[in-house]
Design a protein that fits this description.
By secondary structure, this protein is an alpha/beta fold. It has a domain of 196 residues: Rossmann fold (3-Layer(aba) Sandwich). Helices cover 39% and strands 12% of the residues. It contains eight helices and seven strands; from the N terminus they run H-E-H-E-E-H-H-H-E-H-E-H-H-E-E. Strands 3-2-1-4-5-6-7 form a seven-stranded parallel β-sheet, with helices on one face. Strand 1, helix 2 and strand 2 form a beta-alpha-beta unit. The N and C termini lie far apart (77 Å).
Length: 281
């Protein structure tokens, strides 16, 4: 009989020490209107919503059917999508370096400007909402890093390809050009001296180009929309807590990484899918 008071007091102490818990409020912001990019991001966002987090998504590809805990802040139609909007002649005439980089930096800056001017995005920036985490994409200009300052929230970034040359520095990830080939070069990790030299020069040139053609213009645009007190992009991007990259060591070159970079290749693949049964004679 003397054990019951002790057990009751223990149960009361445990119940008082357990605090009420709830899911985080997460804001995903993706300016680029590319389905191939968003497929990866969408898998993570849906997974977070399924685990009870409240997920809000700024993007061009809203869900066709409502999903619990998933709220679209749609900017659909504000900028033409990539799918079925480019001809074969355009692709053949596109210069790999000047054309691709012009698209990544200049065209994406134009997309940033368009998306930031959307009424729904303006209400989000100027509203009273609170968020625990901001999820962004690293591709061209960092359109939404100012939101981390606006909401005083940490940043997680995602890359739908291998890591881009200008993404490593923000988390101190090693990128040694002697055996880590540049994304924009067809080299493997076994490079000749000449290839290493080209790899080194191009890596530094691209990082410099990203600073002048992406960061500096985005700084001006960021101040227009997030206020004159918003820190420069160079400062905001170093507050990135984690980068998720669409690579895997089994398919790409194995390389050392810091804990803040995680390879999540195949994140968007549905595990419940079934391979077709094929019979052979």
């Amino acid at each position: 009989m003397t054990r019951w008071p002790v057990l009751m007091l223990s149960a009361l102490a445990v119940s008082m020490s357990v605090e009420e818990s709830e899911g985080a409020r997460i804001l995903g912001v993706f300016h680029f209107n590319g389905k191939s990019h968003f497929m990866m991001f969408e898998a993570l966002l849906k997974g977070l919503a399924a685990r009870g987090h409240q997920v809000y998504v700024v993007g061009h590809l809203p869900q066709k059917k409502p999903i619990p805990n998933y709220t679209d802040i749609s900017v659909e139609g504000s900028y033409p999508g990539v799918v079925n909007n480019y001809t074969m002649d355009f692709a053949l005439e596109l210069s790999y370096y000047t054309g691709l980089l012009d698209y990544i930096w200049n065209t994406n800056l134009e997309i940033c400007r368009t998306v930031l001017e959307q009424p729904k995005v303006r209400r989000l920036i100027n509203g009273d909402d609170k968020f625990d985490l901001i999820i962004t994409e690293i591709f061209g200009p960092d359109c939404f890093l100012g939101l981390s300052h606006r909401f005083n929230a940490p940043i997680i970034s995602m890359i739908s390809s291998v890591i881009l040359p200008w993404a490593n520095d923000r988390i101190g990830n090693p990128n040694h050009p002697a055996y880590m080939p540049n994304y924009f070069l067809p080299y493997t990790h076994h490079m000749t001296f000449g290839q290493r030299l080209v790899n080194t020069v191009l890596t530094e040139v691209l990082k410099l180009g990203n600073y002048y053609f992406s960061e500096l213009p985005m700084d001006r645009l960021s101040k227009e929309h997030f206020g004159p007190d918003v820190p420069p992009i160079a400062e905001l991007k170093k507050k990135t807590s984690l980068i998720l990259v669409n690579t895997h060591f089994s398919l790409h070159v194995p390389r050392p990484t810091v804990p803040a970079l995680i390879e999540v290749g195949g994140l968007h693949i549905n595990e419940k899918g079934k391979l077709p049964e094929v019979s052979y004679p």
